[in-house]
């Protein structure tokens, strides 16, 4: 065989190899990559939706819990006010009432005590006035 015929035969085999192997593999790689990208986008969207729903449930649970805590606090304040209206209006009875009803108060993750201020030992800070 002559050199030009061998070159043509090699070129034909190379072309056939390229047409039968390389192009389908490239097309398959493109389709797989495109599918993976679309899958990633879909997963991201679904994850955001699930997390949004979970966040909404958590916010609702926190809101209900906060509302219950506030209602409980207000009921205690109402009870304290009712008791304060029937106790004798003397300084010693009032001081005893205040000392017996002091409770810690949580505000924005910071514990505040209802005890008297170190600067002012004559007044007491009640939770209802904080």
Keywords:
130 residues, 2 helices, two-stranded antiparallel sheet, 2 strands
Task: Explain what this protein looks like in three dimensions.
The structure is a single chain. This protein has 130 residues and is mainly α. It has one domain (3-125). The chain contains two helices and two strands. The protein has helices spanning 3-86, 91-100; strands spanning 105-107, 110-112. Strands 1-2 form a two-stranded antiparallel sheet. A hairpin with a 2-residue loop joins strand 1 and strand 2 (110-112). The longest helix has 84 residues, at 3-86. It is rod-shaped, with a radius of gyration of 39 Å. The N and C termini lie far apart (104 Å).
